[in-house]
Design brief:
about 350 residues, alpha+beta, Fructose-1,6-Bisphosphatase, Chain A, domain 1, D-Maltodextrin-Binding Protein, domain 2, 2 domains, eight-stranded mixed β-sheet, five-stranded mixed β-sheet, 8 helices, 17 strands, about 30% helix, about 25% strand, disordered C terminus
Length: about 350
């Protein structure tokens, strides 16, 4: 049976766009090359060169940098930076964007990435991944401006993620549905394995770090308590499924339905996940698959960041589950305000 490769699929989609120049296909091809290199390195962990452990460095977010974090960041930056398709690269691991020098070969795209999501799981052989987002340069001229780097979420032209696990899976959207490709290691090619992904309108699982219960606000506690209640008429209780690697938790949610939640808390009052590198690209993907992504009260793709490292809460997954969560959170907040007004 004839199989469709990732490269063939991208070219087919580009042919449907009369204004296509081939530059986007070239960029996606370079992302694929970098993903193969990192996949090989992940699958070779513990064999030969030691990639476990820490580098001894601290990133912009105050987190210890793992060796494979650094390797992934360098790999993507080098390959994408030399592709001639981008004018800037931003990374969760870097405080400032990498601007391609004017004198070098550069293109019209902005590439944003979390080069290795879930890196705390590297040493215990749990799925990790790469999340990426692509925007088109908006400003005129050679200078890359804040207007280019801090665009509204819905301005993305493509987004995707790669899961490095028992198999390596590349999932992406360019606004024409969501498609998944699995790497055949014997041929070194990604083949279409999950065409036209559609998330169930409602699931039966929730994904959240319940170890943070004591630092949640009352509305979040109420929501999780509600999901645990026994009420078959509303499909409850929901089952808890939590890996602790966003890309892995999201991938399961995309395929099976349900909701992933990373709410704000007293330690991270603005939320913890990064808009540019995690929330926005996954929101673009889930909406293309028929799902929904929210801060709990605002659509993620309606947000324009004020910094490339902005953080926010994230509720993402099946449309009905996210909408239910928004209503539950709002009702609890309003109820609390009402009681506070009465007692005041």
């Amino acid at each position: 049976m004839e199989r469709t490769t990732l490269v063939q699929h991208i070219r087919q989609q580009e042919k449907a766009n009369p204004g296509a120049t081939g530059e986007f296909s070239s960029l996606m091809n370079e992302i694929m090359v970098a993903a193969k290199i990192i996949s090989l390195q992940v699958n070779s962990a513990g064999i030969g060169e030691d990639i476990f452990g820490l580098t001894g460095k601290i990133n912009i977010h105050g987190e210890e940098v793992k060796k494979l974090d650094e390797f992934s960041d360098i790999t993507f930056t080098k390959i994408i930076g030399q592709s001639g398709t981008v004018c800037a690269i931003t990374s969760e691991e870097k405080e400032e964007p990498f601007i391609i020098p004017i004198e070098d070969d550069r293109g019209k795209y902005i590439f944003m990435m979390d080069p290795l999501d879930g890196s705390s799981n590297i040493d215990v052989n749990v799925n990790i991944g790469t999340i990426f987002s692509i925007y088109r340069k908006k400003s005129l001229g050679d200078i890359v401006t804040d207007e280019d780097l801090m665009q509204k979420g819905e301005d993305q032209i493509a987004a995707g993620y790669i899961v490095y696990g028992s198999s390596t899976i590349f999932v992406y959207t360019s606004g024409q549905g969501v498609h998944g490709f699995t790497l055949d290691p014997t041929l070194g090619e990604f083949f279409l394995s999950h065409p036209d992904l559609v998330i169930p309108e409602r699931g039966s699982t929730y994904s959240i770090n319940e170890g943070n219960w004591v630092i949640w606000d009352e509305s979040q506690k109420d929501l999780v308590a509600y999901l645990k209640e026994d009420d078959p008429s509303t499909g409850r209780p929901y089952k808890l499924r939590y890996i602790g690697s966003l890309v892995a938790d999201f991938h399961r949610t995309l395929l099976k339905g349900g909701i992933f939640m990373y709410p704000k808390d007293t330690k991270s009052p603005k939320g913890k996940l990064r808009f540019s590198f995690e929330a926005a690209p996954l929101a673009f993907i889930v909406e293309q698959a028929g799902g929904k992504a929210s801060t709990g009260n605002q659509r993620i793709l309606d947000i324009t960041p004020t910094s490339i490292h902005d953080r926010l809460p994230l509720f993402i997954g099946s449309k009905n589950d996210v909408e239910m969560s928004e209503k539950r959170l709002a009702a609890t907040v309003n109820k609390g305000s009402w009681f506070k007004w009465l007692s005041g």
